[in-house]
């Protein structure tokens, strides 16, 4: 098909229904060059099924993290890494890591070994210099590692850059070796730098050259403004599609500095090329888990970001798994417990570990290391392995284990002396009695040892832990530095209240609706069926009830690894003789960062097992909020207790209450008492309201507040404000937020006192958050806009809005347009506001909300605004602008 000039190429893929095409259409397509089959291809000729996997893209020296943003949009998990002094604003969360250190690359090596990492992209930076061509002043072809005789300051910077270069090439060589030794090893690498960079001439990179593909492209051919030649060395052949040379069909921007960020088009094409390589192996990124924002939206709460997509929170599949008999494994359980370390065996006494492991495997539980960690004890330091249960959010440790022990040599005597010389407190005896009981009665701690005994037991390598003087002892592993040597990998998802509210709304909506169960699945399918007549015949047995089951001494039911006993020596002063003694802990300490994820890994497995037994359970640390219908409440109670007892986990029976229509859980009161089943109410507990109100009254009476008290009080107020209907308290919280960064003694001003009074009054009399069980159908769409022009030297501001509301299958429209009061506009100008368009745009939103409240109250509403600042203020409910 010869042609001249530009042309449009139509590409069509026709695999099925070929025989249904009319003859004229088929003839036309064949004349255009499309090779249509004469018959439909057989079903067996289809491609292999695509396997979804949770794949990761790692971007080192990420800058603005444009590549990570593009990969995340395709469904990849991403990890963007850069130095702490990164001057760019990253588009995704960025982890700070010093790539000059061997420990950083050890962390990356273990990450690749533990996760399914598809590609690691590295773009090492050159040392900046005055002028345009930086490296030409510091390096040459003869001396690519740096010119001789550089000033010491610049020599140090060149050495730092070289350290990153050497470690980058060594890491890529390691990846090549892994790929050659293991055909299933899937991690690729890509190193990018300008073509003129002397990095390519370094001996380490010369050795790497033969093991990778070279891709050269001009930045201007991928959306850039400058004719900058870039080079990629990569093990991924598909990135060769980026190779493009400038065709001089466009103009170039002349700039004294080169582009420091990848153009958006370049990022999209790069990510698409990598996805093409993935598709060739019949693999695709797995769909992301339900986000916290989606969970908040499902419970009718405003997400903290505007990127949330409302989804139904449900499991991907459901299976029925028969629980194996505990007696079947009794003999093996006994042998396993006999083989455990004595300190681990004491803590795990009575727990059926093999039974728990068998159930986990039958459920295809993703945490494959949980059984090993349980039987060997959980570590407090080092790099945490991803569990697969929680989203990935890896963070490097602040110090190494070796560095911690070196610091401990100096820190030990200081902490020991601090405990010894601390003033007497009212809880000293109670604290010691509790610690003593944990040792001799509960056997969570080893017998007390003096300084000399501890030195001999651990050969001088141990770390004391101070216990805070409260009636509930909390081990402080931040002060002794243990937490700084822990590198977390998982990010906990804590949304039990949102889950339980959504579940209650679903049950109540089903009961009062059309007597049908209808669930839209995230896969696109629908789970539907008629409501059983058992629930429609007697309303008394179809009332949703709620309660909470709380694990007893939850952290103390899990063992600490004997390797880390030296890091958790609980140290207290004996009141009788004022001598400091140390108790070696056998259980997870409450104040350790590693304990949080370790315990929640076990807690989420227990939740999954309860759900497999058809228990509507959520989980928040050691609390399990549970919903059940009246007719099944007794059966549910027995099932939960029997499962926990079968597995050997203790629950706090003394604190447990019966199923009821209203219950206190996770700091709030969940109220299901609405006779019409129309609303679920979430309110603050009365005793908590009175307690915080008294604390506010005390602050107002004194007129001053110590900086050390601000964070605690502010956190309690913020949590309680979140359970109240409306958003009037957001502005008051904004007034108090600035106090959190202050120091010393703070004297309350007029605005601070007004904010405290506002929040106190809302806590005591504000309406509880009421979530409708049957959200209104359809949606109200509101479009607002504002304009600001100057006439005769004075601002003329106008606002307008349009509302679309669907009623009875028809769209109804409302609108308003008006000029703003000149006095209000003038007051903004007098307050020093130079650009008035922001307040004008926000005023349009507020006006629409008030004028059309009859359409908007209790309705699903979408507001469209074209001002990013107004959008952010409406989502957060606050603004930094005083006007």
Automatic annotation (TrEMBL):
<dbReference type="Pfam" id="PF00078">
    <property type="entry name" value="RVT_1"/>
</dbReference>
<feature type="domain" description="Reverse transcriptase">
    <location>
        <begin position="544"/>
        <end position="670"/>
    </location>
</feature>
<dbReference type="InterPro" id="IPR052055">
    <property type="entry name" value="Hepadnavirus_pol/RT"/>
</dbReference>
<protein>
    <submittedName>
        <fullName>Bath-40 protein</fullName>
    </submittedName>
</protein>
<dbReference type="InterPro" id="IPR000477">
    <property type="entry name" value="RT_dom"/>
</dbReference>
<dbReference type="InterPro" id="IPR043128">
    <property type="entry name" value="Rev_trsase/Diguanyl_cyclase"/>
</dbReference>
<dbReference type="InterPro" id="IPR043502">
    <property type="entry name" value="DNA/RNA_pol_sf"/>
</dbReference>
């Amino acid at each position: 098909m010869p042609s001249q000039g530009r042309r449009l190429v139509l590409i069509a893929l026709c695999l099925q229904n070929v025989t249904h095409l009319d003859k004229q259409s088929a003839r036309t397509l064949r004349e255009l060059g499309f090779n249509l089959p004469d018959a439909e291809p057989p079903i067996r000729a289809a491609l292999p099924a695509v396997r979804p996997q949770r794949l990761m893209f790692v971007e080192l020296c990420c800058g603005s993290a444009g590549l990570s943003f593009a990969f995340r949009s395709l469904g990849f998990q991403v990890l963007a890494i850069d130095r702490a002094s990164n001057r760019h604003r990253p588009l995704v969360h960025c982890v700070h890591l010093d790539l000059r250190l061997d420990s950083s690359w050890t962390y990356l090596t273990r990450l690749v070994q533990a996760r399914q990492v598809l590609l690691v992209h590295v773009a090492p930076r050159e040392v900046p210099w005055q002028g345009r061509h930086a490296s030409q002043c510091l390096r040459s072809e003869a001396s690519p590692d740096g010119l001789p005789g550089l000033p010491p300051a610049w020599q140090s910077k060149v050495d730092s850059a070289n350290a990153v270069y050497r470690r980058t090439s060594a890491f890529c060589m390691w990846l090549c070796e892994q790929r050659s030794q293991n055909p299933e090893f899937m991690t690729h690498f890509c190193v990018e730098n300008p073509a003129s960079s002397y990095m390519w001439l370094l001996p380490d990179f010369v050795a790497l050259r033969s093991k990778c593909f070279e891709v050269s492209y001009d930045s201007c051919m991928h959306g850039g403004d400058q004719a900058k030649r870039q080079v990629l060395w990569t093990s991924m052949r598909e990135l060769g599609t980026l190779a493009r040379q400038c065709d001089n069909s466009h103009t170039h921007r002349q700039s004294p500095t080169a582009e420091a960020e990848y153009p958006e088009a370049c990022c999209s094409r790069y990510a698409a090329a990598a996805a093409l390589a993935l598709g060739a192996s019949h693999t695709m990124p797995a769909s992301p888990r339900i986000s916290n924002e989606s969970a908040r939206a499902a419970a009718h709460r405003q997400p903290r970001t505007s990127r949330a997509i409302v989804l139904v929170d449900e499991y991907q599949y459901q299976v029925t798994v028969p629980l194996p008999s505990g007696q079947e494994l009794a003999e093996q359980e006994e042998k396993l417990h006999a083989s455990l370390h004595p300190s681990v065996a004491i803590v795990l006494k009575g727990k059926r570990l093999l039974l728990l492991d068998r159930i986990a495997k039958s459920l295809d539980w993703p945490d494959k290391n949980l059984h090993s960690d349980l039987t060997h004890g959980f570590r407090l330091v080092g790099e945490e392995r991803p569990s697969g249960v929680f989203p990935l959010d890896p963070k490097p440790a602040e110090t190494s284990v070796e560095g911690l022990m070196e610091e401990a040599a100096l820190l030990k005597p200081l902490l020991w002396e601090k405990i010894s010389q601390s003033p007497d407190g009212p809880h000293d005896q109670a604290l010691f009695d509790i610690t003593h009981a944990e040792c001799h009665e509960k056997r969570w701690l080893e017998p007390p040892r003096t300084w000399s005994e501890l030195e001999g037991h651990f050969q001088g390598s141990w770390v004391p832990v101070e216990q805070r003087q409260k009636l509930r002892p909390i081990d402080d592993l931040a002060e002794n530095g243990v937490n700084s040597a822990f590198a977390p990998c998982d990010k906990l998802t804590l949304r039990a209240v949102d889950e339980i509210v959504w579940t209650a709304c679903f049950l109540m909506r089903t009961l009062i609706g059309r007597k049908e169960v209808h669930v839209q699945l995230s896969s696109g399918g629908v789970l539907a069926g008629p409501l059983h007549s058992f629930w429609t015949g007697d309303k008394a047995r179809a009332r949703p009830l709620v309660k909470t089951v709380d694990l007893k001494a939850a952290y103390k039911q899990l063992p600490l690894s004997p390797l880390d006993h030296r890091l958790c020596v609980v140290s207290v002063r004996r009141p009788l003789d004022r001598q400091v003694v140390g108790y070696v802990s056998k259980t997870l300490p409450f104040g350790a960062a590693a304990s949080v994820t370790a315990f929640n890994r076990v807690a989420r497995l227990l939740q999954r097992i309860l759900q497999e037994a058809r228990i509507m359970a959520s989980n928040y640390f050691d609390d399990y909020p549970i919903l059940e219908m009246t007719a099944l409440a007794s059966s549910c109670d027995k099932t939960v207790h029997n499962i926990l007892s079968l597995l050997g986990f203790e629950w706090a029976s003394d604190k447990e209450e019966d199923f009821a229509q209203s219950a206190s859980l996770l700091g709030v009161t969940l109220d299901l008492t609405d006779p019409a089943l129309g609303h679920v109410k979430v309110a603050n507990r009365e005793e908590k309201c009175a307690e915080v109100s008294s604390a506010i009254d005390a602050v107002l009476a004194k007129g001053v507040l110590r900086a050390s008290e601000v964070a605690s009080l502010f956190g309690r107020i913020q949590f309680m404000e979140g359970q109240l209907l409306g958003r009037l308290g957001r502005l008051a919280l904004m007034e108090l937020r600035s106090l959190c960064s202050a120091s010393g003694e703070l004297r309350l001003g007029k605005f601070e006192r007004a904010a405290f009074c506002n929040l106190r009054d809302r806590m005591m009399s504000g309406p509880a958050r009421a979530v409708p069980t049957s959200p209104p159908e359809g949606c109200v769409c509101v479009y607002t806009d504002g304009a600001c022009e100057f006439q005769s030297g004075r601002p003329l501001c106008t606002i307008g809005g349009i509302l679309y509301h669907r009623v009875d299958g028809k769209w109804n429209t409302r609108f308003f347009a008006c000029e703003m009061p000149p006095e209000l506009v003038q007051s903004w100008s007098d307050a020093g506001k130079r650009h008035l368009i922001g307040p004008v745009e926000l005023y349009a939103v507020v006006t629409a909300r008030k004028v059309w409240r009859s359409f908007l109250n209790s309705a699903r509403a979408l507001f469209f605004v074209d001002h990013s600042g107004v959008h952010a203020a409406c989502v957060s409910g606050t603004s930094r602008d005083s006007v």
